[in-house]
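Lab manual, section 2.4: Encoding a predicted structure.

Procedure: take the sequence of the chain (130 residues), apply the prediction step described in section 2.3, and record the output as structure tokens. A sample record is shown.
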Amino acid sequence: MENDFSEFGKFDMIINFGLIYHLKNVEKHLICCAKMSDEILLEGTVCDSTDPSKIFFLEEPEGLGQALDGVGSRPGPYYIERIFENNNFEVIRHFSKDLNSESYVYDWEHNNDNSIFSNRRRFWNFKKLK
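Recorded output:
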């Protein structure tokens, strides 16, 4: 997932849940997804920043369910949206309380303090503009 995987072809939809924060090269990954589908559902842990260039890198233990090379990331929500907007996608946010669970919160308000909490998540539907 860190390299170009577009050789697998085109898909009607890509469901990308709980992956991006285990990747070091998030931008490369998302650009590859944008090449492969006109609709992408994306969910993941993010940092609290409205800066479209904000991403933090963290050491993660290597192994099953973690970063393959030991480095994960926490991009800001606007970092992710910038990538899709630059690739001609509509951004549809689903930051509503009906998605919240005991473990995850989607409707949190930005303090814009760059904090990273594993329970703060965001959920989007990105659709290619025609």
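Check your result against the sample. The beta strands are 14-17, 39-47, 55-59, 71-75, 89-93, 116-128.
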